[in-house]
Specification:
three-stranded antiparallel sheet
């Protein structure tokens, strides 16, 4: 049986140390938006997010990763013959 890989969305807040110790664990980042600016959750610090939110007087919003974000992570695993379990938030 091939090694099983687990793909989660970033709502799980998997620590970097855990990711480093488990190469079969992958995270797909949620999107964060303030006004018309958007980032993947791992591209902006909480401090910067709150700073931008205070400056613009707009609350941050999040959205699930796009299907293509999961495909980007899963395609190389599928090509390598790996089995994948995806765990994500449903709503």
């Amino acid at each position: 049986m091939s090694q099983i890989h687990i793909v989660v969305d970033s709502i799980g807040q998997v620590p970097d140390e855990m990711l480093a110790g488990h190469p079969n664990l992958h995270v797909v980042a949620l999107k964060v938006r303030v006004g018309d600016q958007e980032w993947r959750e791992n591209e902006i610090s909480t401090k910067d997010l709150f700073h931008i939110s205070q400056e613009t007087k707009q609350h941050p919003k999040t959205s699930q990763p796009a299907p293509g974000d999961f495909i980007e992570v899963c395609q190389p695993l599928i090509k390598a013959g790996k089995e994948i379990i995806i765990i994500s938030v449903s709503g």
